Amino acid sequence: MRIPFCYISVLLIVLISCKEKEVVPRPENLISEDKMEDILFDVYFLNATKGYSAGTLSSWKIKPEDFIYEKYQIDSLSFAQSNIYYASNPQKYAALFNKVELRFIALKDSIDKKMRTSNEKRKETKNKTERSQKMREKIKDSTEE
What we know:
DUF4296
């Protein structure tokens, strides 16, 4: 009788200790995961823009933080609390960042495709121009003879 009780006790202790505990309480104004993904995407995009071309945002008089708060109709406190809440669960936070990363990869692929298409059209136009120039020269040479 004693052995099963020990097993059950150990099993209960393991199960209770393995239970996922909420380290940070869920804020009342928690931003949804989808909206948080959009916000993080825009925040990192604006920060990259600021790092790449610092004058652009300032010349347009755009403050990245204010832009984000206005666009998503949130305040700094709700963003900070939601960010801390999601960060307290590393699996959720990593999944959130993976989604943001996938969006950046898709954006890059889309831009690369447009650049290739644009370059191909430019080359095609250049080739047509060169061919027509050669034809003009041939016509000119044949009429001069």
